[in-house]
Amino acid sequence: MRVEKKQKWYATQSVTLRFNTVGSGRPHRPLLKSEMLSQEDPKSHPMLELREKLQPEVTELIKRQRLNRLCEGTCFRKISARRRQDKFWYCRLSPNHKVLHYGDIEEFSQGQISHDSLQEKVTVADIKAVVTGKDCPHMREKGALKNKELLELAFSILHNSDEYLNFIAPDKHEFCIWTDGLNALLGKEMTSELTKSDMDTLVTMELKLRLLDLENIQIPDVPPPVPKEPSTYDFVYDFTQQHT
């Protein structure tokens, strides 16, 4: 269900992006036949060029989705020294993207926990770095480095110079969502495998939407010639003339 929901959101945003682009007043140059023929070759120069032009807009869509997910929040498991996974805590980003609220909860929750119920907080401006895997403080404990599953789900926030907020994501998907979102908050690149997959999916969708407009249309090999200027412009109405 989560995957279907994300795909629906992306599809809606992609169409919105497309209509916003059309309505922005910028001229949209139609593709030439040579460019249309390259539709079957995604590695051709025209297609690669078009994909490159679309990437900044698509990156912004992905960034918005990641930050929206952080605002919804996630329930994380606490890993004790004995590796008992029977305690939970919740973390979510404030709507203005300035504060991370977190705190312990009694039991695992799939729904949202209100900000008022989360007593602790970290100001985004105080976050210095995000580290993952073996670079996390809680992965340096004895035996932790041998647990490959935990290493792939671990990430930490360094804040106030020497303090860490340590996470173990519930799954790889949430790991990508949170590390992408935190990097976006810090103005850094989103580098997860999920972002790469989403980027490819969204750009491909946008390309297909744009090329659909040209189906069953005869595309010229070269642009049509510009017509000569008319011999007279008397047909242009002169609004400065007073008529009685």
Structure write-up:
The chain has 244 residues and is α+β, with helices and mostly antiparallel strands. 39% of the residues lie in helices and 17% in strands. A 4-stranded antiparallel β-sheet has the order 1-2-3-4. Strand 1 and strand 2 form a beta hairpin. The model is unreliable at 18-28 (pLDDT under 50).
Q: How is this structure best summarized?
A:
The protein has 244 residues and is of the alpha+beta class. It has 6 helices and 7 strands, in the order αααβββββαββαα.
Distinctive features:
single chain, 244 residues, alpha+beta, four-stranded antiparallel beta sheet, three-stranded antiparallel beta sheet, 6 helices, elongated
What's the shape? elongated
Q: Determine the oligomeric state from the structure.
A: single chain
**Percentage of residues in helical conformation:** 25-40%
User: Mind telling me the C-alpha Rg?
Assistant: 26 Å
Strand and helix map with partners:
Elements (H helix, E strand, L loop, with lengths): L1 H21 L10 H5 L7 H28 L1 E5 L8 E7 L5 E7 L14 E4 L3 E6 L15 H6 E6 L3 E6 L3 H14 L7 H20 L32
Antiparallel strand pairs: 1-2, 2-3, 3-4, 5-6, 6-7
